[in-house]
Design goal:
The chain has about 350 residues and is an alpha+beta fold. It is about 25% helix and about 20% strand. It has seven helices and 16 strands. It is globular and about 55 Å long.
Amino acid sequence: MHAAAMDARAAARLRTVLGHLGRPEPRDVVTHPTSGTVSPTSFHPQQFQFTLDNSILSLEQRQFYEENGFLVIKNLVSDEDIQRFRDEFEKICRKEVKQDGLIVMKDVSISKLQLAPSEKVVTKIQDFQEDPELFRYCTLPQILKYVECFTGPNIMAMHTMLINKPPDTGKKTSRHPLHQDLHYFPFRPSNHIVCAWTAMEHIDRNNGCLVVLPGSHKGSLKPHDYPKWEGGVNKMYHGIQEYDENSARVHLVMEKGDTVFFHPLLIHGSGRNKTQGFRKAISCHFASSNCHYIDVKGTSQENIEKEIVEIAAKLHGTESNISLKDIWTFRSRLVKGERINL
């Protein structure tokens, strides 16, 4: 296909996305089709590959996710819940709370500095499945109601994070390279996996909002590795090695409580935080318990398996012969329905 034709298709897709938003420019767009009708003549059940039949999503919402790979639901999580998550996070940062399995990460630009425990030191916490307060996020009925549209009724919480993107030190290390989350996951099928990502405050391009490549979830899993950035890269921040830099992009401007649901093959990342504040979001990757584990040896995911196993051995003293499957089995928790395979 000629480059001009590809550019035309990308431009057309971006116009479609922006058409949902009613905004003329692609710079600070927020995508949140939450209501609306679609002509019955345009509805064909076989067209739905990435969403499941239920009464939660409108036809417009389903078609938007099918075409773009993400969907923003406005004001889904209450201010009260977000404040409770924030309070618990600050306790963890001050080391007033310590849970088994919790991974506390620092930005590479300050990782070697001796700083007093506070939220200014912690970039992210992962695997908070043993923290009852933070794990409440994964069981919120309003979150699971939408998750079920993608996974079905038997739902596993597979991976949890609270991200505290710090003000950039000038080395641009607060960026997150463009990537696909499926790179980290040894389970399939990908269409029954979804991420719920909730803004804990106003998020825009100034403090490093998410950027997505609409429609990229229709492609395959691409090879990932560390980008060659001069200022350094945070641990496990793998990025796609080859992609079309001219692909249409959408920056997700979100308010506190807004939640984006997106497919694990959707290419996404985030820019640097150019403010003096810390940009917070809480997220969980969910999967149907009907999903199954795969062996990633000999695939493009082998590099991340090796890295995760090494980190697990260092943090928890685990055996070096454990697999990525073993680690994810430890992390996962049933949140709705029954446990089948995972």
